[in-house]
Amino acid sequence: MSSLDVVVLGLSITSAWGNGHATTYRSLVRGLRERGHRVLFLERDVPWYGNNCDLPEPPWCELGIYRELDELRDRYAASVREADLVIVGSYVPDGIALGEWVNQVARGVTAFYDIDTPVTAAALAEGRCTYLDLALAVRFDLYLSFAGGGMLRRLHDELGVDALPLYCSVDPEAHRPLPCGVEYDLGYLGTYARDRQPALDSLMLAAADAYPELRFAVFGPGYPPQTEWPDNVHREEHLSPQEHARFYCSQRYTLNLTRADMVRAGHSPSVRLFEAAACGVPIISDYWTGLEDYFRIGEEIFVALDGADTLRYLLELPESERLTTGQRARQRVLAQHTGAHRALELEQYFADAAGGRLLRRSRSGAPVAGSPT
């Protein structure tokens, strides 16, 4: 495929503070750039990301920061109009107005990349989604979903959206095994979420209370000030993405926890899951339908239902089995879930969509950008 001009309007690529979008975009954009495509990433200037910026100049794309929609329209209309592919991400501020403008202006293929699919689907069904509505969802040429399986059928049957899976991915250069000493028996990296807290309480904090000789860590923002942490749990508010790999590699095991909407939907792997696996760190996870499609349970990942399961892995599993499981997970991610894999998948989706768009527009005599080669 010849080089494409791609415009991405996403939540953030410059700051990973309190979100998993940034590392997902970084991995995908790097994969596209290495495939020879040109990417312009457009990001809304908001204080919580601007004040916690860990990648002010992404090396794989041109970056455009805008303050309001009027500024976006004035400065970047030509780029959006002439691009081969324009991607609008979930949770973008003023997402509905922005998405309507993109579909009015763009001559190439338009796509909605839903990095929050189960949350989006629930909000759409209840009429409370702030960044997408049903009328807009079906106007995009592509609806790309980070959740697969039954979630795709639900989007079609309940919402009339034909979605394609484009899972999150990992950059193997940024996430890899590092030679650092073990500081924690079990660590967790994640922003506070009320619906995820019961699993943290059950799978980690209960184990920490029961076995004070073990060392635990929780890194991430947003936890209520009144949260009581056991004495053997080390707590940090934020960790920059550049330190993620070192944090993972400082653990004997890492914990993966899933939002309630994602658990109900199934087939919703998180970027943190792939990051930890790429570092070769054994993962203890809660269970959700479809987890076994991404990792073989008991061979590439461990599942815990309560704190007793967690302690069994921490205290009883042979060291050789622990290390082998982490290496198997790493091999799985490198074979299937890197940014390079996602870039290839996106190319194919684009070619199929552009072909259909060419056929439709040729019948009407309208010009079209982004024809496949």
CATH superfamily of the largest domain: Glycogen Phosphorylase B
**CATH fold type of the largest domain:** Rossmann fold
Helix content: 40-55%
**Would you tell me the structural class of the helices and strands?**
alpha/beta
CATH level-two architecture of the largest domain: 3-Layer(aba) Sandwich
Tally of individual helices = 15
Radius of gyration (Å): 21 Å
- CATH top level assignment of the largest domain: Alpha Beta
What spatial form do the alpha-carbon principal axes imply?
globular
Q: Low-confidence parts, pLDDT < 50 over ≥5 residues?
A: 358-373
- Strand tally: 13
**Percent of sequence in beta strands:** 15-25%
Give the ordered list of helices and strands: EHEHEHEHEHHEHEEHEEHEHHEHEHHH
Overall average pLDDT? 92
Largest β-sheet summary: 7 strands, parallel
The oligomerization state is single chain
Total number of distinct structural domains: 2
**Biggest sheet, strands in spatial order?**
3-2-1-4-5-6-7
N- to C-terminal separation? Answer: 6 Å
